[in-house]
Design goal:
It is a single chain. This protein has about 130 residues and is an alpha+beta fold. It has two domains: about 60 residues, YefM-like fold (3-Layer(aba) Sandwich), CATH 3.40.1620; about 45 residues. About 60% of the residues lie in helices and about 20% in strands.
Length: about 130
């Protein structure tokens, strides 16, 4: 039986069994037990995964991960807001609002240069003929 790999509710990479759709149709009870025990079973049609039968515990874990509560979002927002209210952050905002256009331009170039990868730097070193 072929295997597929996924990250379970504990964050572990595990292999899940694959079962042909016709076998699921004929032996649903056994396949259900297998999913409840292992967490998931992939259902295939023509040797391609088409669906996954999850245990309820795995399903709950997936739903919980995706649906953050309003309290969680409020807490995250409050943390971000608190970091923006520090003296250092205020000093940065004041500097940005009081900066000349030349200073803003230099800061933008510096920030953009920091985010370029090594491949980008190598491309600049090559001659124009080598780039074509």
């Amino acid at each position: 039986m072929p295997k597929l790999t996924f990250r379970n509710s504990h964050g572990e990479l595990i292999d899940i069994s694959t079962v042909a759709a016709t076998k699921v149709k004929n032996e649903f009870g056994a396949i259900l037990e297998q999913a409840m025990h292992s967490g998931a079973v992939a259902i295939t049609r023509h040797d391609r995964p088409k669906a996954v039968l999850l245990s309820f515990a795995e399903f709950e874990s997936l739903v919980k991960e995706r649906s953050r509560s309003l309290d969680d979002l409020n807490e995250e927002f409050d943390g971000l807001l608190a970091r923006m209210q520090t003296p250092r952050a205020r000093k940065g905002i004041d500097a940005a609002f009081n900066a000349s256009t030349d200073e803003l331009g230099r800061a933008a170039v510096t920030a953009a240069t920091k985010h370029r990868g090594p491949a980008r730097k190598r491309a600049r070193r090559r001659s124009p003929a080598a780039r074509t």
